[in-house]
Structure formats: C-alpha cells, structure tokens
Design brief:
- Two copies of one chain form a homodimer.
- Chain A is mainly alpha-helical.
- Chain A is 72% helix and 0% strand.
- Chain A contains nine helices and no strands.
- In chain A, helix 5 (77-99) runs antiparallel to helix 9 (181-193), helix 6 packs across helix 7 (119-145) and helix 7 packs across helix 8 (155-176).
- The radius of gyration of chain A is 19 Å and the shape is elongated.
- Chain A starts with 6 loop residues before the first helix and ends in an 8-residue tail after the last helix.
- At the A-B interface, helix 6, helix 7, helix 8 and helix 9 of A face helix 6, helix 7, helix 8 and helix 9 of B.
C-alpha cells in the first residue's frame, strides 16, 4: 500500500507547492487534502491546523536551504558569500522552471502574509530568517577579516542589507513577472559594490 | 447627515487600515462594512468586489506617496535621493506610531499576497511599483550626471536595487518586529555606500 504511511509527506510536499504557487491564505484544508489525495481525518491526525502544517513546510524549506548552503563547498570567504547569492538564484530558477514564473521566497511570502495575523507563525518564520542572516553574517565577518570589503562596510549590517536585498529582489521579480536570472545578477552586483576596489570577484 | 455621501471614503480609509494591520486576504467584505459602518448594499454600489476596492486603496496610497515625494523640495539630486529614503522612513514611522509596529508596505504586502492569485490586481500593484522605481531612476540619473556615484554604479540598476532594499528592509522589520527607525538608517547607509569617496552626504 504505502498510501497511508506516506500521507504526511504528501501533505507537506503538496502544501509547499500550493503555498508557493497560490498562497498560504488562499489554500484551504479541503483543497490541500484533495490535491494530496488524503482524507481530512489523516490531515488532522498529523496536523492540528493549517498553521501547524505551515511550520513544518517552513522547516522543510529551511532544511533544503541549509543543505544547499552547506554543500556549496566554496574555498574562500568571498566565494562562500558569492555561493549564497548563487544558491538564492538557483532556488528561484528552479521554481521558475517548475512553476513557469518566480513565485516568491517561501519564507518571505509567509512573512508578508501572516506577520500581522498569526503571531506564532510570524515568530517561526522570523527565526528562520534570523538564522539565515546569522549564517551570512559569519561569512561576512570572514570576508571583512581578509580585508576585502570597502572601508566602512560593517559585516553585520551588510549581512542584513543583503538579506533585505534577497527579499526585495524576489518580491519585485514575483510581482513584475521578471525572470529569475535577474535576481542572481543583481545580488552579485550588490556584493561587488561592497568590495574594496581591485578585489577580483 | 453626510453618512451616505462619505460612505465611499469611509470604506477606502477603513480598508487601507485593515489591509495594513491584518491583511488583504484576511479581511472580508462583512468585516469591512462593519468597521466602516456602511451597509453591504452601499459597498457594492461603489465597488463591484474587494479586488476593485483594493485597486482604489493602492491608488490612495500611491497618491499619498507621490505627494510626499513631490513636497520634499530637496535642492540637489543627492538630497532628492536622500529625501526618498527619508520619505520611506517617515511612512513607516507613521504606521508604527498609529499601529504600534511596522505593518509593511501597502504595495509590497499586496504584491506578496496577490501576485499568484489575482493577475489584475498584481498588474495594478506592479504598475505603481514601476512608477515609483521610474521616479527614483530619474533622480539617480541626475546624481550620476553630477558624478557623485562610485565608478561602475549604473543609475537604472541602482534604482532597482534601492527599490528592492526598501521592500526587503520593510518586510524584515515587519516579520521581526524591529523598529521603523532601522529602515531609514539602513537606506541611508546603502545610498552612502554607492557614492564616490569623499562625497559629503
């Protein structure tokens, strides 16, 4: 059979897809169960509510992001930083080829939707975004230690600006239907703009 | 009386507030009518649907933004650019004092929510964001003509990066409940980072 045993995973994968291609608010539990081919009783066996499912979906995307970042295997801090921009670009190029367009950041979409309506879910998304920024800040500190940033670039603040740049570029690409390739290009420009003159990128 | 004659404006103002403090999807027409103290018949007399109302709300915010930018009265291109950052900061400081926290950009929130679910509304929001970017690009070209940007800074691309920075910073402040003052400070840092060394900001 296997139908029941993989029901939980089917629900999570279906929700991840539908939250991205439509939105968290727009997708109801009935629609989710239909698309995942599970009974509503199964849904509630695994998840007390759609908000609980959303946390699991966020964790699923976060685990994929950390794995992608960890596997980049870049040798120098600057290459690590550029690998983060490449990873973001690759995620949205993947979404674009799967869904036909840029559909937004799984964390940013949910942040925009629920920050004012579900405080528990807001905190969960905020924690993932904070962890992502912390990882970028560690890399930025290493780039700073090598003296590669322009004078005046603070690693912590640049990590925050870069996170904001990710989120803003992805949101603008989503609303204006521009290609995913533009996101990666713009991110590399922002990194290059903050490096000391003469640093080879 | 005046009750009926200003019903349309009450609906728009109430929707502007509720879409910001909760969200577009979360607020139904019944709730809107209750909060605006109008009958549902009045609502449908003015607006065929919530999506039509949302377009009027977007236009209301856009008109307020253009008025704010036009009244800045800065004398030099660089001051004009800084005035845009100040305007964005002031909008979110206003929201913070009205609503107790950063609630997001009226355009960005809607962009995130409806870009995948309502193509007409997506296009409407995208057009306002494009007009905003066009206005910033005009200023950036003037800053470039005065030779104030660092070598390699393209005015059009910097205008896009700055728009992305606005949207990303506002979204991160909203989800992490950080103060509005951080938005303005970070925007000024991004502008300063793209100016030629020695330019007084």
């Amino acid at each position: 059979m296997g139908r029941t045993s993989d029901a939980r995973e089917r629900i999570v994968r279906t929700a991840a897809r539908l939250f991205l291609t439509r939105s968290y608010q727009a997708v109801g539990i009935d629609e989710l169960c239909g698309a995942a081919d599970v009974h509503k009783g199964s849904f509630y066996y695994y998840f007390p509510s759609k908000a609980h499912l959303a946390r699991v979906v966020v964790d699923h995307h976060a685990a994929a992001l950390w794995a992608r970042l960890d596997s980049a295997g870049a040798e120098t801090p600057l290459r690590q930083l550029r690998a983060v921009a490449d990873a973001v670009g690759a995620i949205h190029t993947d979404f674009e080829s799967r869904f036909g367009r840029v559909v937004g950041c799984a964390f940013g979409n949910l942040a925009a939707e629920v920050a004012t309506t579900d405080n528990g879910l807001r905190e969960h998304v905020a924690a993932v975004l904070a962890e992502w920024e912390r990882r970028i800040a560690i890399i930025c500190h290493r780039v700073a230690e090598e003296g590669l940033f322009r004078p005046g670039v603070d690693p912590e603040r640049f990590a925050h600006a870069l996170m904001a740049q990710f989120q803003g570029l992805i949101l603008l690409a989503k609303v204006s239907r521009s290609p995913a390739a533009d996101i990666s290009r713009a991110l590399h420009e922002v990194i290059a703009a903050n490096l000391r003159e003469g640093v080879l990128v």
